[in-house]
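Morning F.,

Quick status update on the modeling queue. The single chain you submitted on Monday has been processed. Sequence for confirmation:
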Amino acid sequence: MATLDGSHVKKLIVACDAGMGSSIMLASSLKKLLKKNGVHVEHSAVREIPADADVVVTQNNLAARAREVVTEGTPIVPFQLFMGDPAVARLVEAIQSGSTIEV
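Structure tokens below.
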């Protein structure tokens, strides 16, 4: 596990591979939640995660593939539920409050 300082997150990537639109809805929701914090939220295919991502949010079953693509040290927050997942909620809270979390 690594520690993520929410106050340093400026670019958050929601990575997926299914193409069903659920992750686009999550990215849209996160954009609204984090707009006041100046966080740029993007949606990306797992194989195309930008190198300048500060944190990546992806489904549990895609986390290993994401780790192969991201820049070393980039935190990955795996989740199970597209809406209301506790891991994503903890990340949002850390960014909004400028606190740290274990990821």
